[in-house]
Amino acid sequence: MKPPATIETARLRLRPPVMGDAEAIFATYARDPEATRYVSFPTHQSSAEARAYLCRCAVGWAGDGPFTWVILLRENGRLAGAIDIRPQDRRVELGYILGREYWGHGYMTEVVRALSEWVLAQPEVHRVWAVCDVDNHASARVLEKAGMEREGRLRRWAVHPNISATPRDFWCYARVKATP
Ligand SMILES: CC(C)(COP(=O)(O)OP(=O)(O)OC[C@H]1O[C@@H](n2cnc3c(N)ncnc32)[C@H](O)[C@@H]1OP(=O)(O)O)[C@@H](O)C(=O)NCCC(=O)NCCS
């Protein structure tokens, strides 16, 4: 799979991250304990951690993924967050985050909807899916508004390191291609 480098929605522009995004990523969400509460990486303590993450993003784009985009507001070019897709066989998983100041405007719903539609339009893909912590109500709502169905509860699915070292329960959401 080779996704497009840039994707535009009504209010947002997605592009691959570059090393110069490290400070904005660190300042906008990666250092924020609240924004990183329900993510799989520890809250960053310095922008060096954002730079290491950006190196992994570049490796993903050079190979088979994950493919990561930063999310920019079209009106002023500000970096609001990031989203990635992870192709696995005929299914593709999504993950995302926004800085707290950008929450509640429907931005992530707009991005997840656009990216899910692109993913499901690929002939080889039959399923786009995501998981979220059962306590992450905003994320569950984004996935529902973007057209995914809740498929079930994944018990003890994964650790959210900024909460505790104990694996937590997650919801599994997906949208699938209609059978011919
Ligand atoms: C989850 C996240 C991406 C949502 O982004 P967003 O752009 O604010 O989402 P939207 O505005 O598109 O939609 C959010 C929805 O959740 C709802 N919501 C927000 N907080 C909520 C809460 N505590 N309980 C229930 N619903 C909530 C909003 O009302 C909205 O639904 P509505 O349109 O029906 O009113 C953002 O909060 C975020 O980045 N959080 C931190 C990182 C994270 O959790 N990532 C996901 C990991 S699975």
At the first level of CATH, what is the class?
A: Alpha Beta
Could you state the order of secondary-structure elements as H and E? Answer: EEHHEEEHEHEE
Q: Could you tell me how far the N terminus lies from the C terminus, measured between alpha carbons in angstroms?
A: 22 Å
What average pLDDT do the residues reach?
97
What spatial order of strands do you see in the largest sheet? 1-2-3-4-5-6-8-7
Structural class by sheet pairing and helices: alpha+beta
Amount of helix: 25-40%
Major beta-sheet overview? 8 strands, mixed
Q: What is the count of helical runs?
A: 4
Task: Return residue spans where pLDDT drops below 50 for at least 5 consecutive residues.
Answer: none
Number of self-contained structural domains: 1
Relative strand content: 25-35%
Overall number of strands: 8
Reported by name, the CATH topology is Aminopeptidase
CATH 2nd-level architecture: 3-Layer(aba) Sandwich
- The CATH superfamily is known as Gcn5-related N-acetyltransferase (GNAT)
- From the spread of the alpha carbons, the general shape counts as globular
| List of distinct ligands in this structure | coenzyme A
